[in-house]
Each structure stands twice: as structure tokens, then as C-alpha cells.
Specification:
By secondary structure, this protein is an alpha+beta fold. It has a domain of about 90 residues. It is about 60% helix and about 15% strand. This is DUF3450 family protein.
């Protein structure tokens, strides 16, 4: 008689534990792969954004470089014009001084009271007066009246030709000082058809800016051989002139200033 023997597989705890940990490790690896993929995608996206920002900054930098180059070219042109105007004014004064020296020598030869020299002295006074008219409108009445007084006294024979020459020479020395000086003064100007007392910042005998009592800023502008005073509508330009006034009042007479320019080069 045969006997059937049935074997039952026993549950092995070690085997079950290994299967459990294998499953956990498999899940962990899968999770790490997913996280790594997400991190990679995020890094790529950040790199794309940063690359775009870099390109934008490079484009902006190129624009700023072009604007800077254009500004420097404009400033160099204006600087050349200013230097030319200064040289022209100084040359005019030196020529007047040379002519006066020549007149002084002629007066010595002909005599201090020589009537023959009066026309030449009057012509010299007229040339100086023309220089005042064409120059910046700084205290025009005061400066012009000095030459007018000399002319009137000479025409009225109140002074000799030699005396007139000496007075004109002293006046030209004052003009030379004004040509070298940067300072703030007070004077009356015509603004919008009215006489207004303002502070003026005079830069040599080339540029002139003004400040009203209610803190408005402007500049003297030359066009068609005429000078006029205009207020600055641009806030940035007005602020630049305000810095100039503040510096000059603090005795800072040299330095780098960005100023509005509106010049007509004289022929």
C-alpha cells in the first residue's frame, strides 16, 4: 500500500525580510531617480533664465556704451568750442593791449596832450566797447559805463589822451581777470520781459548761468548775435546748475561739472 507524502513549504523569516528590504530599496532608488530628474530640469530652467538675463544685460551694456561714446563725442566738441571762444577772447584782449602799448609810444613821441592821438584813442575805446557787447552779458551796464565815461571825458577834453589810455589799460586788466575767474555774483537781468535780481554763476567770459530768488535756474543763451536769459525746463539740467552754484559758493572753482550748453560759435 502506497503512501502519499505532502511537503508543505515552511515560511522562512529571513527570506521574507530580504524581499521586504529589496522592495524598499527599489522604491528608494526610483524616488531618487525622479528627484534627480526634477532637480536637473530645474537647473536647466534656471540656466536658461540666467542666460536670458545675461543676454539682456549685454544688450543694455552695449546701449550704454554707445550712449557714453556719443556723450563723450558731444562733450569733446563742446570743449573744443569753449576753448576756441576763450582763446578768441584772450587774443582780442591781447591785441587791444598791444595796440594800446603802441598808442602809448606814439603819445610819448608826440606829447601827452597831443590832439592828434584823440581819434586813435576813441577808436580803441570803441573796439573795447564792442567786445563788451559781444561778450557774455555779465554786468553789462557797469562795464560799459566805464568805457563810456572815459570816452566822454576824453571828448570833453577833461582828460588827456595819455590819461585815457591809462584808464583803458586798467579796464582791460580787469577784463583779463574776469576771463580767468569762475564766481557767483548778483545782478539784474531781463527775464520774460521783466527786470529780475538774480545770482549769476560766471565761468570766465564764456558761460553764464543764473538762479532766481525762488530757486529756478537758467542760462544766458546767444543766438543771432544777441544774448537772452532763459529758464531751464529740464529738471536734470537745473539740478546740474544747482550743483555748480553750490560748489562755487563753497569756493570749489575747479572740477568736473556736467552743464547744459547752448552755444553759437562766433565767426
Amino acid at each position: 500500500m502506497s503512501r502519499q507524502i505532502t511537503f508543505h513549504r515552511a515560511h522562512n523569516p529571513v527570506t521574507q525580510s530580504l524581499k521586504k528590504w529589496s522592495l524598499i530599496l527599489c522604491c528608494a532608488c526610483t524616488g531618487q531617480q525622479v528627484m534627480a530628474q526634477e532637480n536637473t530640469d530645474e537647473i536647466v530652467e534656471n540656466l536658461i533664465q540666467l542666460r536670458g538675463q545675461v543676454e539682456d544685460l549685454q544688450a543694455e551694456l552695449q546701449i550704454l556704451k554707445a550712449e557714453h561714446t556719443q556723450s563723450m563725442s558731444y562733450l569733446n566738441t563742446r570743449k573744443t568750442e569753449l576753448e576756441a571762444n576763450i582763446d578768441r577772447k584772450q587774443l582780442q584782449i591781447k591785441q587791444s593791449q598791444a595796440e594800446m602799448i603802441d598808442l602809448q609810444e606814439k603819445i610819448k613821441d608826440l606829447g601827452a596832450d597831443s590832439e592828434q592821438m584823440i581819434p586813435d584813442v576813441l577808436a580803441m575805446a570803441n573796439d573795447i566797447q564792442q567786445g563788451i557787447v559781444t561778450g557774455i552779458p555779465f554786468k553789462y551796464q557797469e562795464r560799459s559805463s566805464v568805457v563810456d565815461d572815459i570816452t566822454r571825458d576824453l571828448q570833453g577834453r577833461k582828460i588827456t589822451a595819455q590819461h585815457a589810455i591809462n584808464r583803458l589799460w586798467a579796464f582791460l586788466e580787469d577784463e583779463m581777470r574776469l576771463a580767468r575767474e569762475n564766481a557767483v555774483y548778483s545782478q539784474t537781468i531781463e527775464l520774460n520781459g521783466e527786470q529780475v535780481l538774480v545770482d549769476v554763476a560766471k565761468l570766465g567770459t564764456v558761460l553764464m548761468y543764473f538762479k532766481t530768488r525762488d530757486d529756478r535756474y537758467g542760462q544766458a543763451i546767444r543766438s543771432n548775435n544777441q544774448w537772452r536769459f532763459e529758464l531751464l525746463a529740464d529738471d536734470t539740467q537745473a539740478q546740474a546748475v544747482a550743483i555748480l552754484f553750490d560748489s562755487l559758493k563753497k569756493q570749489i572753482r575747479q572740477g568736473y561739472f556736467t552743464l547744459p550748453l547752448n552755444l553759437q560759435t562766433q565767426g
